Amino acid sequence: MIEPRFIEQFRKMETPFYFYDMNLLRKTIETAKAESSQYGFEVHYALKANNCDPVIKAMIDAGFGADCVSGNEISKCIAAGFPSSKIAFAGVGKSDREIETALENNIFSFNCESIPEIEVINEIAGRMGKIAPVALRINPDVDPKTHEYITTGLKDNKFGISYRDFDEVGQLMRTLPNIQLKGIHFHIGSQITDISIFETLSLKVNAITSWFDKNGLYLEHINVGGGLGINYTDPKNESIPNFKAYFKAFNDHIKLKPGQQLHFELGRSLVGQCGQFITRVLYVKQGMETQFLIVDGGMTELIRPMLYKAHHQIVSLTSKQAEAKYDVVGPICESTDVFAKGIQVNASQRGDILAIRTAGAYGQVMASAYNMRGPVKEIFSDNL
Ligand SMILES: *Cc1c(COP(=O)(O)O)cnc(C)c1O
Fold first, then answer.
1. Most buried residue, 106, 107, 130, 176, by CB count within 10 Å?
2. Looking at the structure, do residues 261 and 322 belong to the same domain, yes or no?
């Protein structure tokens, strides 16, 4: 999956770093673009998955909008060249300053998650002489059957507005002078690999839009968020996710009114497979019962295994020896700094290089400086 000429270069390079296969990124984006645009769907890239400049540029080149979860992400998107009219702003805890940034930039929509938030946006917009475009993030109570830490659309979750509040929210939409209802928004979770979950979501969306119709509230757009999962166990055989089935599921099941637009916010599925975390074996340590590969990258660079018990395939790029069983661990002073336990890797020595696959999404963006670690480098195939 990584061309031999790149591996030869890695041997001479300081590790750890993220490596991005830009050809795979462009192919992934092209596929998502083709499969969505045939139905006239709009795609926003969820910047929080990966915000490095070449990735952002590829998303802008594809004509995608952006999905932001902070004021800084909005500012970054504007500076990079996303049209402000294609920027959605989500988040349960938007600060006053972030709301002002969004209003100053005339973004596409505030995806609002609570009644008090709507009231504050109305007040700030009033003070600034603006009308805020609002999409209501609704909690549809659909179980995405993914890891509980990355579920967002169940009724006991902090995200979104629940059915109980519909009447009150409808009333606010009619009466608040500086709010304009544009649409409704959903995002039920991440790493969803069962396409039938999106069919279930579509049917819920239909039921919810009919409530808005009955109450005379017009929706210009419906935004169904992101969440399409990727293959962490066999990335080689599924380097591009099944965008065809994903968009088709919505096209087959969601009922749109004439002129109504369907929007998506894809993060992981666009960038996950193009990135790999490259790390070197520092020491092979024989423990009492376990053999450890102690590597130079840790939870400070890639925290997903430690934070969500996420599985990433780990392979040796330099050893051709028969496989042996290892715990692959980082150098950070925490016992949780473990990438994988009891996995098979080609027998390794000090200096061997490992690739931790499928690390393009929620990888570098979650890096920390704990233990005074330096910023993690990012290497792009276009520049090697
Ligand atoms: C994180 C997020 C996304 C992207 O989710 P993926 O699972 O990476 O596709 C989309 N919309 C919202 C509101 C988000 O918070």
1. 107
2. no
State whether the beta carbon of 190 lies less than 6 angstroms from ligand 1.
yes
**Protein residue whose Cα sits closest to atom 11 of ligand 1:** 225
Tell me if 157 sits within 8 A of 151, measured CB to CB: yes
Secondary structure (3-state) at 316: strand
Q: What is the DSSP letter of 331?
A: S
Q: Which residues of the chain have pLDDT under 70?
A: 146-156
Q: Among residues 256, 272, 288, which one ends one of the domains? A: 272
Q: What is the pLDDT of residue 164?
A: 86
- Ligand 1 pocket check for 49: Cβ under 6 Å: yes
SS3 (DSSP) at 217: coil
Is the CB of 146 within 6 Å of ligand 1?
no
46 CB within 6 A, ligand 1: yes
The domain that holds 288 is classified in CATH as 2.40.37.10
Asked if residue 231 and residue 133 are part of one domain, the reply reads yes
Q: Check if 50 has its Cβ closer than 6 Å to any atom of ligand 1.
A: no
pTM of the shown model = 0.96
- The per-residue pLDDT for range 179-230, each reduced to its tens digit, is 999 999 999 999 999 999 999 999 999 999 999 999 999 999 999 999 999 9
* Beta bridge pairs of residue 284: 293
CA of 313 to the centre of ligand 1 (A): 23
Q: Are residues 95 and 141 both part of a single domain?
A: yes
